[in-house]
Amino acid sequence: MASERTPTPQSSSRQSSSLSSSPMSTRMQTLQVDSVQRWMEDLRHMTEVECMCVLQAKPIGVDEDSHQGELIVTSGIGAGDHVARNNLQTLLRRALVVSTELGKMFQRLEKGRWQRVHSTAVRANCHVRSLVHEYSAARSTPPEMQKYEKSLLEKCMELTNITERCLHTDDEFFLKSMREAIHEILTDVSDSFSNMIDMALANEIRVLIKQIESSDCVQTIGSAISNLLSLTQDGPQLCSIIAKEGAVVALFKICRQDRFRDLYAHSLRTVASICCVEEGINQLDKVDGILCLADILTDESSVEAARAEAAAVVAQITSPHHTSTQHLASFLESMHDIVTALIKLCESASCGEVFLLASAALANITFFDSMACEILLQLNAIHILLQACKDRQRVDTPYSKDQVVTILANLSVLESCASEVLQEQGIERLLLLLGEKPSSSNPSEVAACERVQQKAAVTLARLSRDPDVAQTAIQLKAVPRLIELCRSPTERNNSDSVLVACLAALRRLAAGCPDSIEAADHHQLIKPRLVDSFLLCSNMEESFV
Question: What global pTM score does this model have?
């Protein structure tokens, strides 16, 4: 989580950058280097590839005493802790370039631009050969990977030769048949390249994991964990590779040793990122990771950062997006301790991010087990959460409010919840949440505000089964606000889900207090079927209000 994390009950995965043109593109990430330096390296890189095109793709040897003729950008493959990082950077940079070239080939092939198809094939061939040469020089290549390399190089050469043949004819029938053949070969090249890069990355990941498992140096282990964390940001496919190579097991070994307490937070942050995929969660379950998380969360001597990252892992593995629920069986055994620790963390959080992670974990937990809701009521959670909403140091974004109102919505199914919400002046807070507005046009923030409004309306509707809650809501002018949200698309951020929730809440209040709704509003928003009222409001122009 290199940037502000916004886990929700729907997903608490870290954001990752992605590209889309080829099988490798979802894995590639712009490297975090100085932009001018990156431009200079890429310019030099591409220029020398053009030199190779002139030389008809003949290999250029690397003189150990001089790097002026070197094709690869090898900005510092050296010894020590930096070897793995530099190997990964070079590998990812190279793979991104090849992926881009292959994507261009697909596009140009469809348009029949044969000259460009051939020149792109030559460039891709050069890039692949230089990547293989560079990687082999820096790291001993596993035998299985060598087979892929040989096959890939042969296919790249075949692709170069067959595209060259298309330059010397205007026969449409021949070109059409060649287009199909080239497309098939290009697909094979793309798949083979993807598999080879997966194997190369797995090889590098094994090196990092070995550093974590075998080193006693905190700095060396920390550097290896940082590299793993960086890789997790490149998408779920790479996270799957990391999980399969045993990273989760190695990281939990760190979290079970007191001498590495300073690395707990860093390790758990990486675990949370890896657990965005099922393989990561399965590995966590096999090593009793949930028990380790419970120990860290309930250990009063653990620093807040470590407990916050443990909460992030809990939020990740309890996300409703995961299809597998096998790991939740072991989670239930520790649920009381974990829920207790999380609500305490919400109460004592020193900043918004810590509160966000703890509340996101609680929000997800309340979705899959009603016992968690009962535990939270016993722990005075409603008071803690509503008080936190008044503290801008803890609840400072729509994302945090989303977690709070999600928990309240799930707690509101319990009959005993209504009296506590009334006691804590929770109806006033729900009405404030109904007015949540994004501070920018950022899509994720807009979506978070919509969820806050929707869940606030759902919570109000559920609580209004209690006559005292309904009466309080009407006295606080909940009805006019709900009507405004129904009739004005901009007030509800043009969200249909908010409209449905507000109509439901309005009808619940009208059922208990019919006199609170004016005749015109009753005729349009209460009397018709819900779907008819929805269609009426969703088609309203702003001038109607």
Answer: 0.77
